[in-house]
Each structure stands twice: as C-alpha cells, then as structure tokens.
Amino acid sequence: MDGTNLNTITVEGVTYDRAKYEASQAKAPRKNDSLGKDAFLQLLVTQLRHQDPLSPDDNTQYIAQLAQFSSLEQMTQMVKGFEDVSKLVSNIDSSVLVGSLSSMIGKSIQWTHVIKTVDEEGNPQTSSQSYIGEVKGIKVSNGKTVIVAQDSKGLAHDVEVSELDGIANKPETGRASSQP
After folding, report:
1. Fewer CB within 10 Å of terminal CB in the chain, N or C?
2. What is the largest CA-CA distance in the chain?
3. Which residues of the chain have a pLDDT value below 70?
4. What is the CATH number of the domain that holds 126?
5. Phi then psi for 158, rounded to 5 degrees?
6. pLDDT value, residue 134
7. What integer pLDDT is reported at residue 3 of this predicted model?
8. How many domains does the chain have?
9. Is 83 within a domain?
C-alpha cells in the first residue's frame, strides 16, 4: 500500500475528505464538461500508480496518448481562433453591407420573392411573386442584412439582397423644368 486512504482525494496537492469534496463539486458551477489537460494528466498519473508492477504497461502507449491529447488541444485552440476570426469577418461584412445598402434608402426597387413548398405527395413546389416598392430602411435580422421595402399597396417587406431584380432612382415630381 502507498499510504493513501480510499476515503480521501488529493487535488492540486491538497487532501480532502472524498464525500465532502464530491458534494462541493456537485454544487459548484461547471465551466466545461470536457476533459481538460490537468484532468488528463491526473488520470495518466493515477493509471501509472496503479499498474501491475509485475506486468507494467508499455511507455510508448502513454507517450502516444500524450501526443494525441496535445494535438487535440492544439486543434481545439485553432478552431476557437478560427471561430473568433469568422465572427469578426462576419461583423465587418455586415457593417460594409449595411453602409452600402443605406445609400438605397428612398430608391425604387423591384424584387422577386421565391416561395418553396411541398405538395401533398411530398413533391417540391416553387412559386414566386414580383414586387415593386420603395426602400425605407436597412436592418439586420437573424444575422442577415435585409432591405426594408414598402410595396405599392403600402405593405412592408424584408427583402434579401439576393431577391433584388433592379434598383432605380425615384422619379422626381413637382419640379418645374428649366429648359433654355
């Protein structure tokens, strides 16, 4: 025996009563349920301590596990970094798009809204409706930048950029012509 008590647990060099420690951990909020680097190393050391001395495990297996864990940790950090960069680029793209589309406010646009449905037999059906209206504003809805337009009947529509068919300046009315 190595002198450890089965009713205690040692964490970061401090020995606790196992029942009290587990109760306190159950109450504590968890930051992450995944296996962290420290937990993995603790498991590895525990596994080494409790191996059969007459038939020790092969060291290459432990080294391979460490290498795999190190690679996984690096890939996880890279994915997190890529997600952060992706969010930044997306925010920049949205800002540029909103800035560009804001110059359309007050202009006349034509757009086609495509509706995809399924009939009773499960066959896909596609229909479309064309509209003409005036751009009233720009907004970001569910992460997408859309044009807010009012059609000729006074109804408001969220128009995606991909639905645009044409853009035109609104004809000016009430101006006297000054031809020489």
Report:
1. C
2. 111
3. 1-6, 28-36, 91, 93-94, 170-180
4. 2.30.30
5. -95, 115
6. 92
7. 45
8. 1
9. no
Q: Identity (one letter) of the amino acid at 141?
A: S
Position 152 in a domain:
yes
DSSP string, 94-135: HHHHHHHHGGGTT-EEEEEEEEEEE-TTS-EEEEEEEEEEEE
Q: In whole angstroms, what is the distance from residue 163 CA to residue 110 CA?
A: 9
DSSP annotation of 93: H
Which tokens sit at 8? 């205690």
Q: Which residue matches tokens 């504003």?
A: 137
The confidence score (pLDDT) of residue 150 equals 92
Look up the domain containing 128 and give its range. Answer: 105-168
Query: Which 3 state secondary structure label does DSSP give 14?
Result: strand
Rounded (10°) CA dihedral 141, 146, 147, 152? -80
